[in-house]
């Protein structure tokens, strides 16, 4: 796989070729990835995978017309043909008054911060096999586990490079380690399955194989003999593993491209108190070893830490060049892009600050409610804010778990859910979006 220096050189060469072909402006992004994983099932080797990919994308501007194109052919002749084709395509594209490069004064400059994203440890296939086996064995050792979908261990490394015709050129690399297990509890028609997984930039930051495996086993056994519950309005508590999805809906709704298209339920509510005043949601793109850390965005703008929600209120939309120009806003460093197509927006390393009570205290006064551990279905309308998802989890009676439940639906409206959200104090920081246990009162549950 190419290194960051080589990837950046290819991007700079491609931008220069595009200008030679007649582009008024251009940028190029290169991405490379290598990964290796081993899966064990029932103590035997199930699968070994290794992959490598390298891709480079070019975006060119001819006046207000633009085109983007990508390839995995890094040969000089291939890059030259790519540049020529992109310029020709741009000449036939419609004009877009809002598209363009980030202005030079907004681009990241200076030395890259040390985000400590790249683990020098490169696991050998045998060590991955041993880790996968140990994870599965720990899961299978949990009483009540009757079968296994397997244990896995993996490692990957990635490179990102970006160059623009107005002087930006930077690259960075990162690594990732992964452990997971999925097992089955029960017999016959009463079987239930669940999983546990964890990823980290550095192997030293992963929990042990035993911890991951035991968690998978406990989760599967706890789901045995599920029932239902009467339909009605209840307090609903979200496990941290799935509660981050609620913040994901917020992030999707505050992207400036959605605002510009008028396709977000938060349009016109940017001054409202969306959450309780005690709620803060923060973004830390420069966090060391963060799952989504990055020094600059997909258009070369510097990424900075910020509060997304402060005092319960939104601090602003997340922009890229096109949406910022369309809405008359500044750049926020949230452009995101693959090697092909126009940039979108995304946030990096987001978390909702912890509350002051334990999860047990958060549930203590719930006479009858629901603790959600799994969600399925796509019933979230980002234009209206209507929310309806299939759910699994546990019924709460008098502040305690009172048996597993499944095949139920929870529903509400995202603005009401945000405003009624209460966090516990069990925040852990290892996902791309991290939340503690969350409680929302008055949600509709459809069960029996």
From TrEMBL:
Residue intervals of the Metalloprotease TldD/E central domain: 119-224
SUPFAM superfamilies in the cross-refs: Putative modulator of DNA gyrase, PmbA/TldD
Residue span(s) of domain Metalloprotease TldD/E C-terminal: 231-447
InterPro entries: Metalloprtase-TldD/E_C, Metalloprtase-TldD/E_cen_dom, Metalloprtase-TldD/E_N, PmbA, TldD/PmbA_N, TldD/PmbA_sf
Residues of the Metalloprotease TldD/E N-terminal domain: 26-90
Family per similarity comment: Belongs to the peptidase U62 family.
Protein name: TldD/PmbA family protein
Organism (species): Qipengyuania gelatinilytica
């Amino acid at each position: 796989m190419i290194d960051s220096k080589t990837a950046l050189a290819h991007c700079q060469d491609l931008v220069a070729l595009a200008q030679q072909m007649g582009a008024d402006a251009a940028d190029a992004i290169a991405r490379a990835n290598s990964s290796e994983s081993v899966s064990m099932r029932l103590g035997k080797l199930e699968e070994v995978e290794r992959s490598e990919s390298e891709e480079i994308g070019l975006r060119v501007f001819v006046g207000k017309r633009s085109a983007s194109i990508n390839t995995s052919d890094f040969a000089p002749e291939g890059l030259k043909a790519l540049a020529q084709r992109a310029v020709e395509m741009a000449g036939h594209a419609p004009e877009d008054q809002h598209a363009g490069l980030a202005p030079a004064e907004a681009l990241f400059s200076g030395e890259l911060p040390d985000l400590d994203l790249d683990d020098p440890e490169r696991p050998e296939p045998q060590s991955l096999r041993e880790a996968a086996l140990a994870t599965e064995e720990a899961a299978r050792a949990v009483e009540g586990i009757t079968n296994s979908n397997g244990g896995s261990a993996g490692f990957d490394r990635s490179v990102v490079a970006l160059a623009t015709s107005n002087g930006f050129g930077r690259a960075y690399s990162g690594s990732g380690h992964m452990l997971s297990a999925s097992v089955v509890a029960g017999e016959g028609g009463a079987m239930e399955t669940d999983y546990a997984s964890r990823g980290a930039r550095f192997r030293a930051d992963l929990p042990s194989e035993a911890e991951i495996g035991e968690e998978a086993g406990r989760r599967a056994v706890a789901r045995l003999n599920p029932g239902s519950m009467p339909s009605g309005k209840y307090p609903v508590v979200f496990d941290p593993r799935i509660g981050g999805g609620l913040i994901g809906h917020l992030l999707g709704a505050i992207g400036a491209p959605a605002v510009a298209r008028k396709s977000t339920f938060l349009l016109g509510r940017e001054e409202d108190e969306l959450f309780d005043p005690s709620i803060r949601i923060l973004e830390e793109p420069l966090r060391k070893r963060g799952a989504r850390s990055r020094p600059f965005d997909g258009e070369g703008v510097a990424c900075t830490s910020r509060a997304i929600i402060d005092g319960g209120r939104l601090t602003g939309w997340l922009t890229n060049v096109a949406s910022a120009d369309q809405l008359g806003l500044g750049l926020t460093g949230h452009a995101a892009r693959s090697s092909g197509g126009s940039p979108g927006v995304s946030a990096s390393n987001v978390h909702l600050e912890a509350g002051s009570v334990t999860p047990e205290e958060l549930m203590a006064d719930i006479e009858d409610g629901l603790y959600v551990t799994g969600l399925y279905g796509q019933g979230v309308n980002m234009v209206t804010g209507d929310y309806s998802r299939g759910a699994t989890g546990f019924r709460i009676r008098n502040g305690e778990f009172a048996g597993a439940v499944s095949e139920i639906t929870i529903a509400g409206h995202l603005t009401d859910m945000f405003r009624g959200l209460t966090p516990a104090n069990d925040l852990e920081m290892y996902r791309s979006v991290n939340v503690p246990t969350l409680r929302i009162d008055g949600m509709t549950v459809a069960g029996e």
